[in-house]
Amino acid sequence: MIIFETNMGNIHIHVDTKNASISAKNFIDYVNDGFYDDTIFHRVIKNFMIQGGGFTKNMSEKITKANIENEAKNGLKNTKYSLAMARTSAPHSASSQFFINTSDNSFLDCPGENGWGYCVFGEVVEGFEIVDKINQVSTGNKGGHGDVPNNPVIINKAYSRFIMSQTLIVADLHLTTDETNKTHLFIKFCQEQAVMADQLFILGDLFNIWLGDDLSIDHYQKVVLALKTLSLKTKIFIIAGNRDFLLGDDFAKQTNCILIDAPYLLEVNNQQYVLTHGDELCTKDKGYQRLKDILQYPITKFIFLHLGVELRLRISAQLRQKSIKAQQHKSYEIMDVDITTVNQLMKKYPGANLIHGHTHRLNTHVNNDFTRYVLGDWSNNQGNAIEISRQLNRLEISTAVN
Question: How close are the terminal C-alpha atoms of the chain, in Å?
Fold first, then answer.
């Protein structure tokens, strides 16, 4: 987050380091060097843009570093309140100066008039009213320049502030229609804790059974509503588990959740975590893996989702009974993750740690190259989560949540 403290109020800017890495780094470097302190918005064209970053209060032009590459082909648009690099008619002539669009200026987008356009690299996220006030100031000619505010609009200070994001991760809730206490516990978690986070990841088996969106959504309307409401504040990502692998597009649309594939590499606060449900790591359970391959094969899923309601219910009940019976004869070791398989996975993600569920064996395993965090399952009155902010913490979720 970049903050401009101006004589008309503060403007908070989010810089897009992913899609405009060169421009973003250039801008942040100027900020950190104190370059923008005591500079002005030297050019204001009403309902077009406000431009700054190059002149002092007495209209002396500052000496800049080298020009940078034009990244206008990054797909970001010159919409109202977006931040873009100012330049001359030469495509790669931008250095320190920037402008904030005060209307939608699509004609500045790539390809523009010369095949390039003007590179957007950020957006105003707070202080819109300050931008609007600057947009309305009276202007004239000064120092050989036009559209200069008659009363200087001064950036007293520009600085960066690192905003620590919060991520919550849960798994294996196994919600059912008859365990209402557990459903209430999850909804309470959404309303009181997850709503304070930037993003929530659900690593499989949110539901104990999911027979397809067409059949199951109606049975979980309270959960659907809770997720949809939560999504207004918090981004929600879901990895399907072995119980709810039939979650589909209608569910995602009604809840505003994003269904993601596993493994998923989470990068947050300069840390990396591999997220997965975990059942694919239990490779010693060969019978389970064979059944999983069959059930989750695209053709099998297609056929099952086109069966009638009663037949789907009957097949699901039979498979569940067989699973329960099979588990009674399996050893503790077979139903846990296989360490060799885990190590093979993590070799693909050097420097990352692993978070998964499925086994219900809440624990933390510290290895030489990575740490493996295992989430537990939820009961009717207690759950668990992992929180990642400045560091990784484990949370207990209970009916006493405030």
Answer: 30
